[in-house]
Every structure is written in structure tokens, then in C-alpha cells.
């Protein structure tokens, strides 16, 4: 046996001149047209109704149209102040009068089976399950649903028809080529039923021939005109309709979709940002909590991000490591011959070339083999590199100071300004090619 206190029961009141559709029989919301000049006069009936149910431990949910809310809001505030109670909640709905009448009766039918906060949330959820609107000839005076300038000008064109929807979304569209199927924004669950309300003198043949076949309803019921219909649609001749699902589980499925959270002030369950009972701001959840532990996905096996990489993405290629992965003995470097060491020539003794020609040949070979220096470092000028390559040898040929003087004190060599002969130059450049003493000349 449960020891928890009994759950409070809620009752639904509709604060507008919106008659019932009679679709749900005795399960209807209590209507209060709020007629009268003074605030106390037009709110007296609603205050008595609220006092009676609050004394019995019930909650009162007041529904009213958002586009006709001034009198309803003042009546709720007057009742709360008179009774000194926050057990009266208020919910505004931005839908047409015929759809408001149907949804108010549906909330009254579900109110005894759900908490008061959930019943208030169902009023908003049920608007997404119906298709409510009107078949209009003009929209130039329509102020409850946004229209474009093109649609406003099109209202003055003869033989023009518009489809205006208030639920599940607010939208106005022009019917083209007598085909309204492209204008329909949603379709309730099968089987579909339609309620139609129109004023006297408004034709319904065009509506039945074009719109009704697009929805394929199983039933169509005609109702009297709603008193606030002309105020909402902005004209006297219109065909108002609301399409809903006649499935036995249509209402219960809507209840299952509601995920309420408790109010931080009054602890009442609900889904609205502002609590309909105390007016406190509600902290909404970021997402739906899991129903079972099995719904929680396991953590990923790896945290590198590779497990979520798509299969078509090319895997990155690993680059070669600049250093060996495992330490080991360094390989011996190849020694290069220095400026003083030259490779031995085969079949003969080693001869030394002059330092100038030898350095020029080495520099030319290095410039052809490696365009960049083998070891990183600042480049040195050519003269300094030549000076550092090894000990320099004196240039070939006799030094001017060592020349033998002639008979008149003149040097015995060729006169200045004259070039030596080719034989002398060749002998000076390569002395090792001269024949040995005692050999016969060529």
C-alpha cells in the first residue's frame, strides 16, 4: 500500500467565447466567455469555479487564445489575487478558434489521468498533431498569421484562393491550378477526420472538390460558425477546418512524448520555460535521459580519434624517423682525401702537382658533385678556403730575386713584356715530364 499523498487532479477552463465541438461527449472544458463591462462582473463566474475546485484540492488550468488574451489574463490575475492561491495555471495557444475548441476538450479528457503540469504541457503538444486552417478568398485583412506583400496584392485579383494554416505551423499559400496538395504542411495519423465550420452564405463546394480529396478523410462533420472566427481570419466568408487523427492511441502516444521536469519553486512537473502555475523560470534538460542502463552506449575503446575515422579517409603515412629507433654503433664515416693526400697513380711513382692547379681541380670537382656544402656552416670566401686547405708551395719557375744576371747586369731570362715560349711554359708547369739525364732527346 502506497503512503505517498494522493496526486492532485486538475480541471480545465477555456476563457474565451469558443463553443464546444461535442466530439468527446461529456468530457469538455468549462467555457467562460468573459462577457461584461467591469472586471469583477465578467470574472465572477470564473472566480467561483476556481474557488470551488481549489477547496477540493484540485488544480485549475486556464486556456485562452493568444491573439485574444487581454481579458483572459486579467481574469486569471483577478482570481489569483482574490483567492490568494497559485493553484491556477494559465496556458496561451496561438491557433484558430475551431482547433482551440477541439484541443481544450482533449486536454479535459486527459486531465484526470496525468499530473496538472503534464496536462498543461499537453495543450501545447496537441497543437502539433492537428492540421488547422481555413479556405480563404482574401488575406489582406489577416493579422494573426504573417503574409507577404505579394499575397496582400493577390487578394485583389479575382478568382484567387488561399490556404491559411494555424497549426502545426503558421503559413499562408496560394492555391495554384486547383491543386492544394502542395500547400498542405502536414497530415495527421490515419484515419483522418475533419471538422468544418463556416458562416452562413459561404460556399463549400470548392473546398469539398479540391481540399477534401487531398486529405482523404474517413469522416467530415459540419459545425456552426465559431463566434471568434471572423476576428481571427479577418473576413466574413471563409471555411474553417481542423483535421485530426481518429486512431485510438493518438492521444496516448502524445502523452508518452512529454518529458516533464519539476519546477524549482513549486515542484510541479512541466515542460514550459515559464511555469504556468508559479511563473518561475524552469531549467530545461539538455537531452532525454536514458530509460535503462542498456541505453547508455559504452565508452570508445581508444581515445585517439582513429576509431571514428571514416573508412574512405586515407590513413596518414608515417614519415621516416630522422634518428634510429634503437641505439647502436655509429657507422664509420668515409674519409675524403685532404689537400696534401692524393690517390696513388698506377704504374709509376707519385708525383706532386702544383698547389694552384690541384686546388682549382678540387674546387671544380666539389662544385659539380655537391651544389651545397657537405657540412652545415657559414660559407667562407674562396681565398680563405684556399689558404686553409694546406701549406702553400711557391709558384713554379725561378723567383725574380734568384735570376742569374747577364754580362751587363741584365737577367738572362726573356725580356720583360714578352711571353715565354710554349716549350718553356710547358717545362715550367710539369717538370716531372722532362727526360732524365743521359736520355736521348726526341
UniProtKB/TrEMBL annotation:
Annotated source species: Lipingzhangella halophila
Stretches with biased composition (Low complexity): 338-349, 399-423
Highest taxon above the source species: Bacteria
Region Disordered: start-end pairs: 288-307, 319-442
Protein name according to UniProt: Uncharacterized protein
Taxonomic lineage from the root: Bacteria, Bacillati, Actinomycetota, Actinomycetes, Streptosporangiales
Pro residues composition bias: residue spans: 433-442
Amino acid at each position: 500500500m502506497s503512503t505517498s499523498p494522493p496526486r492532485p487532479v486538475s480541471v480545465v477552463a477555456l476563457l474565451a467565447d469558443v463553443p464546444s465541438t461535442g466530439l468527446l461527449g461529456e468530457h469538455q472544458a468549462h467555457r467562460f466567455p468573459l462577457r461584461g463591462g467591469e472586471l469583477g462582473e465578467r470574472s465572477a463566474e470564473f472566480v467561483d469555479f476556481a474557488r470551488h475546485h481549489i477547496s477540493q484540492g484540485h488544480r485549475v488550468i486556464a486556456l485562452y487564445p493568444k491573439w485574444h488574451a487581454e481579458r483572459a489574463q486579467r481574469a486569471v490575475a483577478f482570481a489569483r489575487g482574490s483567492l490568494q492561491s497559485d493553484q491556477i495555471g494559465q496556458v496561451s495557444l496561438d491557433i484558430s478558434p475551431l482547433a482551440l475548441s477541439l484541443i481544450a476538450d482533449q486536454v479535459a479528457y486527459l486531465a484526470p489521468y496525468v499530473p496538472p503540469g503534464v496536462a498543461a504541457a499537453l495543450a501545447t503538444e496537441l497543437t502539433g498533431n492537428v492540421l488547422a486552417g481555413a479556405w480563404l478568398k482574401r488575406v489582406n485583412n489577416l493579422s494573426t498569421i504573417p503574409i507577404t506583400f505579394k499575397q496582400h496584392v493577390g487578394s485583389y485579383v479575382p478568382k484567387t484562393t488561399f490556404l491559411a494554416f494555424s497549426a502545426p505551423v503558421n503559413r499562408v499559400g496560394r492555391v495554384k491550378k486547383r491543386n492544394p496538395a502542395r500547400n498542405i504542411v502536414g497530415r495527421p495519423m490515419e484515419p483522418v477526420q475533419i471538422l468544418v465550420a463556416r458562416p452562413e452564405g459561404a460556399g463549400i463546394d470548392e473546398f469539398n472538390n479540391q481540399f477534401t480529396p487531398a486529405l482523404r478523410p474517413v469522416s467530415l462533420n459540419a459545425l456552426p460558425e465559431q463566434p471568434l472566427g471572423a476576428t481571427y481570419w479577418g473576413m466574413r466568408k471563409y471555411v474553417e477546418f481542423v483535421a485530426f487523427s481518429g486512431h485510438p492511441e493518438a492521444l496516448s502516444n502524445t502523452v508518452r512524448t512529454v518529458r516533464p521536469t519539476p519546477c524549482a519553486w513549486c515542484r510541479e512537473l512541466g515542460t514550459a520555460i515559464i511555469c504556468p502555475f508559479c511563473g518561475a523560470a524552469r531549467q530545461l534538460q539538455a537531452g532525454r535521459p536514458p530509460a535503462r542502463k542498456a541505453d547508455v552506449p559504452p565508452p570508445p575503446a581508444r581515445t585517439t580519434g582513429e576509431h571514428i575515422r571514416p573508412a574512405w579517409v586515407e590513413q596518414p603515412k608515417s614519415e621516416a624517423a630522422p634518428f634510429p629507433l634503437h641505439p647502436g654503433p655509429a657507422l664509420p664515416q668515409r674519409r675524403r682525401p685532404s689537400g696534401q693526400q692524393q690517390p696513388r697513380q698506377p704504374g709509376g711513382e707519385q708525383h706532386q702537382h702544383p698547389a694552384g692547379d690541384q686546388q682549382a681541380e678540387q674546387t671544380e670537382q666539389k662544385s659539380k658533385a655537391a651544389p651545397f656544402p657537405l657540412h652545415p656552416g657559414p660559407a667562407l670566401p674562396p681565398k680563405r678556403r684556399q689558404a686553409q686547405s694546406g701549406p702553400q708551395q711557391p709558384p713554379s719557375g725561378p723567383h725574380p730575386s734568384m735570376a742569374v744576371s747577364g754580362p751587363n747586369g741584365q737577367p738572362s731570362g726573356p725580356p720583360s713584356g714578352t711571353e715565354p715560349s710554349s716549350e718553356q711554359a710547358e717545362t715550367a708547369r710539369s717538370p716531372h715530364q722532362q727526360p732524365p739525364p743521359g736520355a736521348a732527346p726526341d
